[in-house]
Amino acid sequence: MRICSSNTPVADRRIERAEAAYLGLAIGDALGATVEFLTPREIRTQFARAGGVHRELGGGGWLKLKPGQVTDDTTMSLALGAAIIAAGGQIEPLGCARAFDAWMRAKPVDIGNTVRRNLVAFRKTGCPIAPPAEQDAGNGALMRILPVALVTLGRDPPAIEQAVLAQAHVTHNNPVSDATCLLMVRLLRAALRGVALPELYRAEIQPFVETQPQFAFRPRRRENPRGWVVETLQAVLQALLDTDGFEDCLLDVVNRGGDADTTGAIAGMIAGALYGRAPIPERWLKALDPPVAAACRAQARALIALARPWDHSFCYQEPA
Ligand code: MN
Ligand code: MN
Fold it and tell me: The pTM is what?
């Protein structure tokens, strides 16, 4: 099946980057889950025989996972992605809430407190939008943002913002969470069209931190990031900017410990979009749970196909 109307190298490269972002999300989740809630010191001790660095999709962790198994970060993204695809690309709160509710009924291996509380409220009230809450600034809406970023590639900024917030507010109706979701979608869009890291920093990350100083991530190294989305994003941005490749970025972020599956998932999606498929280590692709890997690939292609109008307005030419 031909996905793109114009099967140009640029369009091919975009599909490849979208697949790499989806695989990066799942790989980062599985890699980080092994060390979730450990401190960097505990990780160094536990992986002393591997040079003090955790670097394989070996499972285990507090969830006692199988090697290559993913957690809620990936399975919620896939539940959302499937619902968006089934709705022909439409993203509205009720469809998202029903998808997450069905996901929760299937007894996921883990689930965040904010996600659980607001999905239980949805079951009681039928209202798919969580009440605004200052404390709901966790990373649960950010970790599952990738399918929205892919399917909205052809849309204009107000429509993108509406879609991003429709998905986020089902469980996290909070301005700090919103800001990170909107930033991540801008980063993913730029990376998918071939913008490199220094330009990503200059055009998006630097202005974001300047206008919202609570996200400042220099000079102190962020270790043990909690599920608070500010710390999560600080760890991810440091790891992204302190490395120059997919593997190094993911190893950097998960070895900081804390909410490592989620920092791994978020770093994985942006590093995948930025660096593409080629630098993803074969050993990680082989270890990743095969049905999850297949679903990531299929959803990336389907979401890009639904975003196809983007092709016609797309004028960026990748440097040779
Ligand atoms: Mn998780
Ligand atoms: Mn987590």
Answer: 0.94
